Amino acid sequence: MALPAAAAAHDTWLEQRPGRAGRVELALSTGELFPAAQTGIAAQSLVDRGCWSASGRRVPLQAAMALPTALALRAAPRRGDTIAQCWVQTEAFDVEVPRPLVPVYLREIAASDSVRRAWAEQAQQGLPWQERYTKHARISLEQPVAAAAPATPPPPMALDIEIDIDIEAPLRAGETLRFRMLRDGRPLANQAVELRGEMSRFGVWRQTDAEGRARVPVPFPGRWLLRATELRPLADRPGHWESRFVTHTFTVAPAEAASAQGRGQLAAGGQPSSPSTPRARSANHSSATTTMTAEPPISTARR
Predict the structure, then answer these.
(1) H helices then E strands: how many in the chain?
(2) Averaged pLDDT for residues 277-291
(3) Nearest to residue 114, comparing CAs of 192, 180, 184, 187?
(4) Any idea where the domains of the chain sit in the sequence?
C-alpha cells in the first residue's frame, strides 16, 4: 500500500545519547527538521547496522528499545577501544507522492535540472509519482585525543557521505568541513548536499565535484548534519523513481581550546547532551512539509 503523501521527504539520522562508560548509546530518529525527532524506525526495517572502532574493528550495533520518537541502539567496544563511527541502512519503502507536493519535494532536496525535466515530461503524460526509497544514516563520534586512527575505513553504505575527520584534531568552529559522496562505493558527482546545524537558522547547500568531493565552512560549535537525496527515474518503468536518502551527523568543537572542566568530563567518559529544539531551517524548507506523513510507511516492500 502506498501512502498518500511524500513521507520520503523526512530525514533519518543517528544521535548520541548519554550512556554508561565503555558503551555507546544512540538514537535513530526521523523528522522534518534536524534535530527535532518525530518518529522512530522499527528494528526489523534495518537491513544493515554496525559500528567501527578506532582500532578498525567492526562492533555490533544492537537494538535496545523502541521509543515514541526514536529507536534506541547501543554498542560496546572491546576494553581499551573506542567507537569511531556507526551506521544503519533501511530496507526499501514504497510511496506515492501526490502531484501537488512533487514540486515541494524536489525543492527541498535541491533536485537537479535533469530530474526536474524528467518530472515535467512525466507530468505532461499524466503519470503518478511512484517512488521506492531507502534510508542511510551514519554518525561520527567524538573521540579521545589518544585514540588511534582506524586501520581500515568503515564499510560503505549503498549511498554514503564520507567526512575527512582527523581523530587527533577534531573539527572546530570556523574551520572547513571536507566530505565526499559515494554511491555503491563510487564517487557521486554533481550531487546536492546540505549542511544543517542545531544552532543555525539556515541550511547551506554544496554540489559535489567530479570526484564526489565538496567543502563548506562550519561556523558554530555543536551538532551538525549533512543530508542528501540521490533521485533517478527508472527508464524501464515510466512514472517510477528510485531514491536513496543519506545523512551523516557529527559534532563540532568550540573554536577555543576546551576548558579544563570540559577535558575532565571527556576523560571521565562524559557524553553529549540529549537533543534540543531545532533552530536550523533550510532555505528550501516550506510549511507545506507539515502535510507530509510520518515515517516509516504503513507497509513496506522488500527488494
Answers:
(1) 3, 18
(2) 37
(3) 192
(4) 7-291
What confidence score (pLDDT) does residue 27 get? 97
Residue 284, pLDDT > 60, answer: no
Cα angle value 35/85/28 (rounded, 5°):
35
- CA–CA separation, 133 vs 109, rounded Å? 14
DSSP-assigned letters across all residues of 141-208: PP--TTPPPPSSPPPP-SEEEEE---TTS--BTTSEEEEEEEETTEE-TT-EEEEEETT-SS-EEEE-
The pLDDT tens digits of the residues spanning 169-178 come to 678 999 999 9
Rounded to the nearest 10 degrees, how much is the dihedral formed by the CA atoms of 23, 29, 34, 38?
A: -140
Give 54's pLDDT tier (boundaries 50, 70, 90).
confident
Pinpoint the alpha helices (H) of the chain: 102-108, 113-124, 260-267
Q: Burial, 139: exposed, middle or buried (Cβ in 10 Å; 0-12, 13-18, 19+)?
A: buried
Q: For the whole model, what pTM was predicted?
A: 0.82
Task: Report the DSSP pairing between strands 240-252 and 129-140.
Answer: parallel
Among 6-20, 54-68, 224-238, the range scoring the smallest mean pLDDT is 6-20
Bridge partners for 68 per DSSP = none
